[in-house]
Amino acid sequence: MRLGFSLVVSLMAFVACVDGDPPARDPAPASAVNSARTRDSLVSTVEGRDRLAADLSKNRGRVLEVLAKASPPHDVALAVRLMVEARGEDKLTFASWLVDRGPRSAPVLVELLGTATDLSTTVQTLQILGKLKEWKAIPVIKTRLGDRDAWVRMASAHALGEIGGQGVVSALGELMTDSEAPVVAAAVIAIGKSGDREGLPRVLNALGHANPRVRGAAASAVGRLGSVTDAVRLRALLEDPDQGVRYKAAEALDLLAAE
Question: Shortest CA distance to 159 belongs to which of 177, 178, 148, 143?
């Protein structure tokens, strides 16, 4: 059978494609390569992360896109830098992002807490470390118990209570004589959250504090740490002049009765 010339040529071309090397693919567009390289250089360096943070208010969408595509460990470093720069809801957004990353976030946050001067950033960092229950953060958190700002002292107390562990109750005890009643109350609550019965004498003593906020906090802490033998002290608070204290005392008594 005779084949036409054009058909023979087509068959030869087909065989060449099947048996020979596969056809070369077009390279990725130069713009895509450059974009990826630019993103990596921004995320992996302090200078680059500073540039992105400075750009947050003007190009929020672009910055968030860069964060979404960033690889560990630079993604956490960028998120921490953005949290420092952010304000309002954005700060909470980055804080939540860091909590979701779990222990990976802790080392950068511990480093930040040691140098942070902004009140909002400091309190937010303490809250994240508490939620992460990062015990390696305890030493630097303890240094914040003596902060001049009462909000920082309270946030430090709550973080230590969330983390718990050896030496936490002793450190929180330093705040029991704080000049600000809300700070004392935070320390009492934290001792209760720690679950360490070593702190029970401290919270029992706080049941007689002059400030009702502290008395209420102490009642709750006794409910967490105490036993039925401590019920007598709590029943006395059922006659407290403050309604909130009476409620906390009744709630604590219910907890002890359920044991």
Answer: 143
Q: Tell me the pTM.
A: 0.82
- For tokens 């401290």, the residue is 202
CB 182, CB 154: distance < 8 Å? yes
Alpha carbon distances (Å) from 70 to 64, 93, 103, 128, 251: 10, 17, 17, 21, 48
User: Does residue 174 have a pLDDT over 70?
Assistant: yes
Helix axes of 60-69 and 74-85: crossing angle, nearest 10 degrees = 160
DSSP one-letter string for 61-118: HHHHHHHHHPPTTHHHHHHHHHHHH--THHHHHHHHHHHHTGGGGHHHHHHHHTT---
Which domains does the chain show, CATH number per domain?
37-100 (no CATH), 103-163 (1.25.10.10), 168-259 (1.25.10.10)
Rounded (5°) CA angle 134-45-116: 45
- Distant-in-sequence, close-in-space partners of 169: CB < 8 Å, separation ≥ 6: 191, 194, 196, 198, 199, 202
Query: In the chain, pLDDT over 90 holds for what percent of residues?
Result: 80
Question: Residues 52, 80: contact at Cβ < 8 Å?
Answer: no
